[in-house]
Write a structure and sequence with these properties.
Elements: H1 25-32, E1 39-40, E2 45-47, E3 51-52, E4 58-64, E5 73-80, E6 87-92, E7 101-106, E8 112-114, E9 117-121, E10 127-131, E11 136-138, E12 143-145, E13 150-153, E14 157-160, E15 165-167, E16 182-186, E17 195-198, E18 201-203, E19 210-213, E20 217-220, E21 223-225
Parallel strand pairs: 4-6, 5-7, 6-9, 7-10, 8-11, 9-12, 10-13, 11-17, 13-19, 17-20, 18-21
Antiparallel strand pairs: 1-5, 2-4, 3-4, 14-15, 14-16
């Protein structure tokens, strides 16, 4: 299949969200699995040892990454990306540089099971992209604390406005990553993996966008909000 034929051509992407009623077996499988740890897989991404915060939450600080030309795009690569209950995946701006977009991929072939919090710290209004072609699941207690828009996708690549592709699999194209904004999501398969949200309250700040872009978008007993933004 032509890799461009299933690209969503929304500029700075709007939400592609369709609700389905499905049997509970998908969620039973997800709950039976222990959410995998967060591990780095290149692009100079670094994941700290878990830090226990006052109150008992466990925080995983994500630093480093690749910033082409010292610009406003910051790229991260993870082998596994899962957030257990009472855990925090904290994208931390250790450089202090101005950032417009945090673009991250998961390369290990396992779905991302999110039962805790994903947050950004020190990035002001930077947008967060998380791409995992193997699937994404938000369970009870999942939450977001992101300064800008939040985009979650099971796409195979993110197409930047200059035509460069940030692909889910590492390769020579990583050397071409640029400062251009995201223009589209690209899918190579005819049946992309689903994104599911069960029992979660996911929200972004005033005027921001919350998007889920993938195969089946499954929502059960959840609330997704973007005040005066796009959901």
């Amino acid at each position: 299949m032509n890799s461009e034929c299933r690209v969503c051509h929304n500029h700075l992407v709007n939400l592609l969200l369709t609700s389905f009623l499905v049997c509970s077996s998908f969620f039973e499988i997800g709950y039976a699995q222990v959410a995998p740890p967060i591990t780095a897989s290149g692009l100079n991404t670094q994941v700290s040892a878990p830090v226990t915060l006052p109150g008992g939450a466990v925080q995983h600080n994500i630093t480093g990454g690749t910033r082409p030309g010292g610009g406003a795009n910051l790229f991260h690569s993870f082998g596994e990306f899962g957030v257990p209950t009472n855990n925090i995946a904290n994208f931390l701006n250790d450089s202090g540089l101005p950032t417009s977009n945090i673009l991250s991929r998961v390369t290990g072939g396992n779905p991302s099971n999110i039962f805790g919090k994903i947050q950004t710290e020190g990035f002001a209004n930077a947008n967060l992209f998380l791409m995992n072609p193997a699937g994404i699941m938000f369970g009870p207690n999942a939450s977001l604390n992101v300064g800008g828009a939040a985009h979650f996708t099971t796409a195979d690549y993110l197409k930047l406005a200059d035509g460069v592709q940030f692909t889910a699999l590492p390769g020579a194209q990583d050397a071409l990553l640029s400062v251009a904004p995201v223009a589209a999501f690209g899918f190579l398969a005819s049946n992309p993996a689903p994104i599911s949200v069960e029992g979660s309250t996911l929200s972004v700040g005033e005027g921001q966008t919350l998007s889920l872009v993938g195969g089946d978008i499954i929502t059960i007993g959840s609330e997704l909000t973007a005040p005066n933004g796009q959901t």
